[in-house]
Structures are given as structure tokens and as C-alpha cells.
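Moderator note: this is an archived Q&A kept for reference. The question asked for a predicted structure of one protein chain; the sequence and the answer are reproduced below.
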Amino acid sequence: MNYQPLVTWGLNVIQHPIPSWANAREFKRVFGWLDNYEEELGDCWMMMHLGQETCRIIKAEGIHSESLEKCRQMLKERTEGPRQRRYAEGIREYFIEVESKLRPGERLLGSSDIVESLFGKYKFLMERSPQKAITRLILAIGALTSRRTPELIREAMEAVKIDSVEKWFRKYIGESARSIRQKAFA
């Protein structure tokens, strides 16, 4: 996908008239070689478009049998020429592998946007903390993913004992380097 600006630029040079400010002979001397690659650049552009459309479908709908079938259909309808068909076939083969790992009716996230947003919010909370390490504040991630009401907060406070939180934290997070240093030099 990182070739898109170059491919788009090459196609623009080939497909648009020579700019009025340019000397036609000099322009052709410098950029004329691109004409020999119009078909390849067109194929590359189409393959990038197919990849982006596939990603858009998966990102919007997640990974499940129906979304994969929608992608397969899109790839079937939009591919022309041997290069594009090989590219689309590679994607379809990958879908077979992915689908074989899905449980019946399972739908997986097709994007890391949610996770990245969640960690962004967590980092924002951490900036307010004097400790720049994973602390009990990690448990706030659960609260960031739900709609919080006073009733829900009261239920959670009544249902979970501080001792349980401490045990969980020791088991899964452990001590930070800062707390270890504080104990050592206290």
C-alpha cells in the first residue's frame, strides 16, 4: 500500500496532458519512459484498490464467513487480467486459511482501531498519574469500555473486594520497578 503515491503519480503523468508551464519536448524526455509502464501501473493501482476495499469491508464488518464471502465476490467482479487475478487468488487463498480457523458463527474484529483507541484513553489517564508504570489504573480499561452509571459503579464496588483486586494485580501484573526500588531503599 505504501506504493500508492508513486503509482498514482505515474498514472497522472501518463494520463493527463503535458502541463502548460512545461516544455513539451523536455517533459517527454524526462517522463516519457513512464508510457512503457502504463499497463503495470494500472494493474498496481487496481490491486491496491482491491486491497483497500477488502480492508474496508473487513474493518467495517469484522471477520466472519459472510464478510469473507462479500470480499470474495468483490474480488471476482473487479479483477481483469492475469496479474490482478493472481493477486485476487492469493487473497482468496488467505481467506480459506482464515475461515478454516473460525468457529461456527464466530465474528472476529477486523481492525485494531478499538484497541488502539482504548490504549490511547488509558495512556491519557496514565499521564495524570505520578507513576509512569502499569499500576492498578490498568483496571480502568474495563470501565472505559462500558457505559457507567452510578448504579453500575455501586454494584461493582459492592461485588468486588479490594483483597480480590490486590490478588489479581499481584498475579497478572506484579510489582513495578518503582515499587521494587522504593522497598529496597526504604
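Archived answer notes: The chain has a mean pLDDT of 88.
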